[in-house]
Amino acid sequence: MGVHGVKAVFFDLDNTLVDTAAAGRRAIEESKHHYGEGEARIICDKVQAKLLKECHDPAKMCITDLRISHWEEAIQETIGGEVNRNLAAECYFLWKTTRLQNLTLAEDTRGMLTELRKGVRLLLLTNGDKQTQREKIEACACQPYFDAIVVGGEQKEEKPAPSIFHYCCDLLGVQPAECVMVGDSLDTDIQGGLNAGLKATVWLNKAMTTPVDTSPVPHYIISSVLDLPAVLQKMEHKINAKLGTDHMGSSNEAH
């Protein structure tokens, strides 16, 4: 489906196209079952909390070492004794493998992307560590659905910096005013799309929560990524209506 004036749609990956949060929770549960109840449950809950607060600087430490350290600290905080790096590494790799196994691009999402691509160009734009994000992309096998894939960790700046959006535009040979950004983060996806001067931003708000007053304001809000075609159709109607009004105005002036 083509939309007048829209040549490309940029999609976020995590918790937009794939449910990374759910995959992470399942991986934590798997780790609890693997190592038994009691202390294992406490350790896993601590790791989950550390992941949510994680701040990664790839210049200082690789993501693997950082995440093994989360498990190491959680084990140490829970059972004390000597630091057991080997056990921490084993826990981390079980969690990582399980999370990747649970990352899937749903069949209906694949169908939507296939249909959209008949009319517009599609680009995947994801923030994060390059190794971690490339592994997720591989795991959910989403490459065939996109004209280009851009990982923030491979660029000078990540979302919401305008530079990464303009880089995406250059890759596809389009202008910012011809692009739409779809994502679940107001701070990175929506703010970034606004910063870069994109035609429209679409916020995926699955829980339909009310944003705080200081949040950036998206052009459109959807509760499922599958609602995107309807939004694009709405945009098309608005553009056609405006073109019709403009045409009538110019016709009146001619008389």
List the helices and strands and how they pair.
Layout: E1 8-11, H1 20-35, H2 39-52, H3 63-79, H4 85-101, H5 107-116, E2 121-126, H6 130-140, E3 148-151, H7 162-172, E4 179-183, H8 186-195, E5 200-204, E6 220-222, H9 228-254
Parallel strand pairs: 1-2, 1-4, 2-3, 4-5, 5-6
CA-CA gap between termini = 37 Å
Give the class from helix and strand content and strand pairing.
alpha/beta
- Work out the strand percent: 5-15%
Pick out the low-confidence regions: 250-255
**Number of DSSP-assigned strands:** 6
Q: Which bin fits the share of residues in helices?
A: 40-55%
Main sheet properties: 6 strands, parallel
As laid out across the biggest beta sheet, the strand order is: 3-2-1-4-5-6
Shape: elongated
Order of helices and strands: EHHHHHEHEHEHEEH
Number of alpha- plus pi-helical segments: 9
